[in-house]
Write a structure and sequence with these properties.
The chain is mainly β. It has two helices and eleven strands, in the order E-E-E-E-E-E-H-E-E-E-E-E-H. The chain is globular.
Length: 168
């Protein structure tokens, strides 16, 4: 399902779930929600951490969500945390999940990463983008009684590159 937004919707956030944690990305940086069965292993890379998928003829890296989110242990002070819940326990690295989000670092860039997710929750209104200095999570907010961690798409793509280099 193609996710490129109209100009009026560009500031909305797509919320999704990974291991019972809720995250959000600006919809402008989400190209598509794709089925995960297209993920293939990469020789010399651990299958449960890094894979590759064919996305409309382009090879996209698929990186375990657990690995992307682990190295930023969010032990740092979050940007905005009204009613913040306790951190979930560490997750096992895996590429398994029914879907992947095909994302880019900016809305004017081609797709750069496939992010395994458990499910899409929906769209919520966004706010002015805040950039935490090098932080993956730039904001935490409460949506429907759950804490949503809003991710910086540029940092997410950069983190994926770091993870791939580390496990290679």
């Amino acid at each position: 399902m193609s996710m490129r937004p109209a100009a009026a919707d560009a500031e909305r956030l797509l919320t999704f779930e990974v291991e019972s944690s809720v995250y959000a990305l600006p919809i402008a940086e989400v190209h598509e929600v794709a089925e995960a069965q297209r993920v293939r292993c990469v020789p010399t890379m651990p299958r449960d951490r890094v894979g590759i998928m064919n996305w409309h003829g382009d090879a996209l890296p698929v990186v375990s969500s657990a690995l992307l989110f682990e190295s930023e242990s969010e032990a740092e002070e979050p940007v905005d945390t009204p009613g913040e819940a306790a951190e979930p326990p560490p997750r096992a690295a895996t590429l398994d999940g029914p879907q992947v989000l095909v994302v880019s670092g900016r809305d004017d860039e081609p797709a750069q990463l496939a992010l395994p997710i458990d499910r899409v929750i929906g769209l919520v209104d966004g706010v002015k983008r805040r950039r935490g200095a090098g932080r993956l999570v730039v904001e935490r907010r409460s949506v429907d009684g759950r804490v949503v961690s809003v991710l910086d798409p540029r940092r997410l793509v950069a983190r994926a590159s770091e993870v791939i280099a580390r496990v290679a």
